[in-house]
Amino acid sequence: MNMKxxxxxxxxxxxxxxYAQMAFFTLQNSGTEITPKAIKSEIKMFYEKFGNKEVKRxxxxxxxxxxxxx
Length: 70
Hints:
Oligomer: single chain
Order of helices and strands: HHH
Mean pLDDT: 91
Largest sheet: none
Shape: globular
Strand content: under 5%
Number of helices: 3
Helix content: over 70%
């Protein structure tokens, strides 16, 4: 695997993680049961409303706040 492929893979993993963090955060705080269907629906909504860059930014803010509140 060359450096370009490794960088793309890292970006993909970071993006997937950001979507997962946002989906779980919103589902937990809304009292919605966390099911595969609910997760898929949340991720789709975030993608359509915000796009990849904004989701990463929002996930970073949420995770930073969670770390500070511990």
